[in-house]
Amino acid sequence: MARSPKAVVLVVAALVATAFAVTPAYADDPGLNCAVTATATISVTPSPVLYGHNALVQWSADCVANTSEDALVISGPGFNPSTTVFPVGGGSQPVFINQTGTVGWSVTVVDTSSDTGYSRVLASVSASVAGVTTVPNVVGDSQAQADQDLRAAGYVLGTVGSVVDCNNVNTVSRQSPTAGTVLPSGSSVSIKIGKKPTPPAQCE
After folding, report:
1. Nearest Cα to Cα of residue 133 among 177, 76, 175, 190
2. What number of other Cβ atoms are within 10 A of residue 74's Cβ?
3. In terms of DSSP bridges, do strands 119-130 and 49-50 run parallel, antiparallel, or are they unpaired?
4. DSSP code of residue 118
5. How far is residue 164 from each of residues 113, 171, 173, 192, 198, measured CA to CA in Å?
6. Which ranges of 55-164 would DSSP assign to H, the alpha helix?
7. Is the dihedral of CA 17, 21, 27, 31 positive or negative?
8. d(CA 125, CA 194)
9. Model confidence over 57-106: pLDDT tens digits?
10. For labeling, which of 10, 58, 109, 144 is most exposed (least CB within 10 Å)?
């Protein structure tokens, strides 16, 4: 039985639609195909990370670098997303932790081909920052008391100088870093002991 021209057109249209439905739009684009199907992991050790110390960020990804059009971008402390692009399937990098609170990193796959510009976040990780300590206030302390207070807070007494200060004679007049500064444990804090002016000058 012969089909009408209209029926033939409908059948052809249905077959074309079915072909497009079955075949992904990126099937003929290896770079985009890899980016769309990529998977990745990213981790940081130790967790929580320690303030003032290095942490190790490690990542891996499947179906990345299969073509010259695919790359990984790692973002987070220690990485510059605008320049740090890794055209490999994995790696690691030590990063120095100088932030407080919570820090995080993510790995994004990018299809760098000009026809798509496709990107997708594959994995992310976050960690709280431990070991955050602040410098105590030792102004007004004797040198011996300042040394004791600093050690109790996890710091060591650094250089000891002097400065004319009639309000703090024989006690700490200034400290560096100042009280409340976030500083890694084990760091040194310098002080200046107040003294009277050299005669004939006198304290008023």
Report:
1. 177
2. 21
3. parallel
4. -
5. 67, 11, 9, 9, 9
6. 143-152
7. positive
8. 49
9. 999 998 876 777 788 899 999 998 777 777 667 899 999 999 999 999 99
10. 144
Tokens of 149: 């207070």
Q: Report if pTM > 0.70.
A: no
- CA–CA distances in Å: residue 77 to residues 18, 100, 110, 114: 47, 11, 20, 29
Neighbours of 84 (CB within 10 A): 14
pLDDT tens-digit profile of 158-188? 999 999 999 999 999 999 999 999 988 889 9
Q: H or E stretch including 196?
A: none
**Does residue 174 contact residue 168 with C-beta atoms inside 8 Å?**
no
- 3 state SS of 145: helix
Tokens of 108: 């994004």
C-alpha span between 204 and 196 (Å, rounded):
10
